[in-house]
Design a protein that fits this description.
alpha/beta; Rossmann fold; Tumour Suppressor Smad4; 2 domains; 6-stranded antiparallel β-sheet; 5-stranded parallel β-sheet; 7 helices; elongated
Length: about 290
């Protein structure tokens, strides 16, 4: 979802059966979204005028006495001004399936602005998809680039994560929240690894009933697990994956964000504390 916002998608939709989990997901997205301005609206409480007043207030405007059309004009001027200076805005809406026709009309007017300065993130139950399929919603539906379905309990903490490092420096941890993780150089991958030594679509990590399966996607420099080249390999916690000049260690998820067990820092290098050196680095060549 963060990637859709970063890419400037005009509209994205997430549906689910748990309003509480959808609301938690939107709050998390608002807290981390790479935008300059963000607003959050619960559709159930938003008549057209209250909807516009809420947006302006969250974008920093003082309350003013104006009719609906004046409020809309002020909001359009603000969004266009920010967009011309490269500053995007995010509007996240809970229970969007409860909106009335006039608010949907206002949203379509905002989405029609060029250049597009606004990303619209809609959440709701399955009725939201029925609303978007109606003839009156053709513009919103046409601008919807991403759709997700949030299963019940999807926000439970993931059981495993990948600890990512490069050239001996630990970069962070990637929670494994989805069943398939496409890894590669391009930004469109689930886990993009920008490097000339990584293929555009390098490897695929899939969750199975008995663990995780890693498959090399005919990459130029190959995929390694614990120092050995693999085409396909079932992983267990502790396995170290080498993709180009990146290292990814499969770990059981834990609150701590420090280095994995067995690794201790020594300057800018990482030395294995168990007496064995890390797997040797494969010889790499740049990928075209």
């Amino acid at each position: 979802m963060r990637e859709a916002i970063a890419d400037g998608a005009p509209c994205a939709v997430v549906t689910g059966d748990s309003p509480a989990e959808l609301a938690a997901l939107l709050r998390r997205c608002l807290a981390t979204a790479p935008v300059e301005h963000a607003a959050h609206v619960v559709a159930e409480t938003a008549c057209p005028r209250a909807f516009l007043e809420s947006l302006l207030a969250q974008f920093g405007f003082e309350p003013i006495s104006a009719d609906e059309q004046e409020l809309l004009s002020l909001l359009r001027i603000f969004l266009q001004h920010e967009g011309r200076h490269g500053r995007r805005s995010l509007l996240a809406i809970e229970e969007a399936n409860r909106f009335g026709p006039r608010v949907w009309q206002l949203l379509q007017e905002l989405l029609s602005m060029r250049p597009a300065p606004l990303t619209l993130l809609l959440s709701g139950d399955r009725r939201l998809l029925q609303v978007l399929e109606s003839p009156a919603m053709q513009r919103v539906a046409a601008l919807t680039r991403r759709r997700w379905r949030l299963g019940h309990g999807s926000l439970a903490p993931p059981a495993h994560c990948l600890q990512l490092s490069r050239n001996g420096e630990i970069l962070g941890r990637v929670p494994l929240r989805q069943r398939r993780l496409l890894i590669g150089r391009q930004r469109q991958n689930d886990l993009p690894l920008p490097s000339h030594y990584v293929s555009r679509h390098h490897a695929l990590l899939s969750e199975r009933q008995d663990g995780y399966l890693l498959v090399d996607l005919n990459s130029t420099n190959g995929t390694y697990v614990n120092g050995a080249p693999v085409r396909e390999r079932r992983l267990v916690p502790g396995d170290l994956i080498a993709i180009g000049d990146y290292r990814l260690r499969l770990l059981e998820a834990a609150p701590a964000a420090g280095p994995p067990a067995g690794w201790v820092p020594e300057g800018t290098r990482r030395v294995f504390a168990g007496g064995r050196p890390p797997p040797s680095r494969p010889r790499l060549r740049p990928v075209g």
